[in-house]
Design goal:
Blueprint: E1 2-6, H1 14-25, E2 29-34, H2 37-51, E3 56-60, H3 66-79, E4 85-88, H4 104-126, E5 130-135, H5 147-153, H6 162-186, E6 192-198, H7 212-225, H8 229-232, H9 234-241, E7 252-254, E8 257-259, H10 268-282
Helix pairs in contact: 1-2, 3-4, 4-6, 6-10
Amino acid sequence: MRGLRLNQSRSNTGIGKTTAIDLAKRGARVILACRSKQRGEAALEEVKRESCSNQVVFMQLDLGSLKSVRSFAESFLKSESRLDILINNAGIYLQGRTEDGLGMMFGINHVGHFLLTNLLLDRLKECEPSRVVNVSSLAHLFGNLDFNCLNTHKALGLGTSFTEVLQVYSDSKLCNVLFTHELAKRLQGTKVTCYSLHPGVINSELARNTNSVIQILLKPLSAFFFKNTIQGAQTTLHCALQEGIEPLSGCYFSNCTVKKVSAKAKDDAAAKKLWELSERLCGLA
């Protein structure tokens, strides 16, 4: 089994690294894909050491750059003959713009994953049965997509207050669920399946980009309410490895169990509209 392990920014921490270690221990060939060369190489050494496996490779990937995504996909397809599992794990909580002019959270949390998945889809089909796992969040429940804003500003929102940034993050996580919903429809008739999931509230570094006051307030609560990275990786691993869940393609999981989603998270029209917009922004249309 060869799995592509996708992780964006600080890949030497969090559920991305923990998932990579688990997969490597199981004998998978694991590709660590992340933006920072220094942190990626540090993660590579740690994953190799913790898993006692040499079948782990680091490849540089910046999901905030469509050029980097295309370059990564090209290099991967040339160097790796198989792709059994693609795990889209990147998540950033920060306003700003990508080099392509997209809203930062829209570009990294959704569009980068969308382009990467589409560029690797033929390889996944060649290696079927195979899977795509999109790490979303419970925050998607609070998300709403403003297509006027997306079309005009190429962003989910423009505000910079705490509540406005949280709303944009939630919107980006709704994109993950809708992307999975539409991808499953487009993969019908193949043996490639896909799943979205909430890993739990993870005591990791996702909130490192929030202001210092919020971080100070969250720290005492984390030991009581947040999962550690081993606990947080379990639903990702379940969606990647569990036998018999193929009929649940397109579904959303939490605590290793399929969960019902709200109407807006399975809105066929919105999912199709988001897919077509993403295609145009990526130059795939």
